[in-house]
Amino acid sequence: MRTIDLRSDTVTQPTPEMRRAMAEAEVGDDVFGEDPTVNRLEEMAARRLGKEAAVFVVSGTMANLVSGLTHCQRGDEMIVGSESHIFHNEVGGMSALGGIHVRTVANSSTGLTAPDEVEAAIRLPGIQQPRTALICLENTHNRCGGAVLDSEDIGVIAEVARRHDVALHIDGARIFNAAVALGVTPAELAHPADTISFCLSKGLSCPVGSLICGSREFIERARKNRKLVGGGMRQAGIIAAAGIVALETMVDRLAEDHANAKRLALGLARLRGLHLEPDTVQTNIVIFDVMNRPAREFMDAMKSRGVLASFVSGRKVRMVTHYGIGPADVDEALNMLEAVIRGLGDVNR
Predict the structure, then answer these.
(1) Distance from C-alpha of 186 to C-alpha of 90, rounded to nearest angstrom
(2) Quick check: pTM over 0.70?
(3) Which of 17, 174, 266, 311 is 20 to 30 Å from 50 at the Cα level?
């Protein structure tokens, strides 16, 4: 039985060009700063995001952790969205490893955090309270259906941060999806923030890797914190080479994933027993509600038919389009889901 894997864009396979580049990469010891391929990738990333410098890390979780460690001291507080990846999916690393207190502000369904609520969450100086050192945004927003923040959305939070001398970090795991969806450069979206991280291993289809971009001074301190958490790599040019190919060849094609996600959303909306608003789908993530049964039960039935998705919560299911999934795959997945619904008897409920 054929399987259509819509769990995440992390399941992407490297392209043939990436595999060739990895096999032929010129390498050196990155801890000593001597890997020319890593150095080139970091320079490319900083330039694309409009920052002075960048550092290559192994994952988006490490990118956010290292950024938090570099912005904050032990006992400081950081403000994140209530639905953020940092809060839900990064094993509490900020507090466990950094001694950083995490405070949440509600995310809207479109991934926004209200500026007045963010401002109200910032601590006043005092010996009984932690210092607010950092505000984090997420773009695109994973648990809010791949929602996009534009430069105005980011700018109003940046202004709040500046008024209170607080740093702003963007978890930009899918920032290139946001830029493609908005028709702007990623540098425009990164500009209001002090730092931004992004993943190579999601829609850009690399096997591993993320980057943190910021000022030269910040990145030098972040490089030490990368080493602190075990992220110092040696001949890492072998994996960095795929990142160079990704930045050169895989960004514009993200629009195909967005079109396929819209096709998927429109099809899901026509199926009885499921609910979503297709107009809210902006990028490559589709989240829908199962009306008549728990999401995990529905997902088990989907899996038996050859469609893989991921669990969000309760009755919510997530599907993600990516490199390797085309329109024909979307249509086949929809046919399989229609069969699942018939088999479960949900069409009559």
Answers:
(1) 24
(2) yes
(3) 17
